[in-house]
Amino acid sequence: MSESKLRFEVLEEETHYPVTKQKSVGKQEENEQRDTNEETTEETLEQQLERLVLSVKNDSDVEQDTVKNTLENVKNASAAKELGNKFFSQGSYLDAIECYTTALKLCPAEEEYAYSRAVYFSNRAACLLRLGRTEESVDECTQAVTLSPTYVKALLRRAEAFEKLDKLEEAVADFDAVLKIDPTVRTAAQGRERLQKIVHERQEKMKAEMMDKLKGFGNTILGKFGLSTDNFQMVQDPTTGSYSINFQQNTGESGQQKPSQQQHK
C-alpha cells in the first residue's frame, strides 16, 4: 500500500469515530444546557426586573429619554408589562407592581398612549387587590378609568374592590357603566343583579328602622294631645307608588271613628 493511500485510510479512521463520539457528547451538552436553563428561569426573571429598575434611574432622566426615544420607551414599557404579567402569574405581586410602575415611568404621557397607561394602572390595581390593599386598588382603577373611560376591565376590577369594601352602591354604578359600554358582559349583569338585591334589602331595612324611630318620636309629641302614631296609617298605592295617610280619631263614647285621608307623594 502506498504511503499516500495509507495516510488517507488513517485520516478516514481518525475522523470517522471521533465524529460519532462528538455527536454523543454534543447531545449530552445540549441536555445539560437545557437543564441549566430550566433551573435558572426564575433567576432570569429577577435579572430582567433588576435591569428594568436600573434602566429607570429617576423621573427626570426618563422624561429626557421620552422626548428623544419615544418609540424605544414605548417598547420597553411594553416589555416591563409582559415581565410583570409573568410575575403576577407566579403570585409575585410586589415584583409585578414594580414592573408595572416601571412601565408607567417609561410610557409617554401623551394622549395617544393613554390606553397603555390605563392598562398599567389597572394591572397594578389587580396586584394590590390580591395583596388586600383594596383602597389603593380602587385609586389605581380610578386612574385607569380616567385615562380610558370605556376600559371595561378596570371598571369591573373597581366594582370588585368596591364590593370588598362593602360600598355596594358604587359597585352597582360601575356594573351599570360596563353594561352601557357592552350589554353582553355577563359578569357585570350578574354582579349588578346580585348586589342590587342586597342594596334594596338594606334600603328597606333602613326605612323600617327610620320609621320605628320616627314613631317613637311621634308618640312622645302626640301623647301630649292624647294621640299616638297609631292614629295615623300610611298606605302605599301599588299603582302610583305614592302614600296616603289615614287618620283615625280615638274611639269616643259612641264607638264611632272619623277617618280622614291626606295624600303624599
Automatic annotation (TrEMBL):
Region of interest: Disordered: 1-46, 239-265
Gene3D superfamilies for this protein: Tetratricopeptide repeat domain (1.25.40.10)
SUPFAM superfamilies: TPR-like (SSF48452)
Repeat (TPR) residue spans along the chain: 77-110, 152-185
Keyword annotations of the record: TPR repeat
Biased amino acid composition, Basic and acidic residues: 1-16, 26-37
Transferase among keywords: no
A Pfam cross-reference name: TPR_11
Identification of the protein by name: Tetratricopeptide repeat protein 1
Lineage, uppermost ranks: Eukaryota, Sar, Stramenopiles, Oomycota, Peronosporomycetes
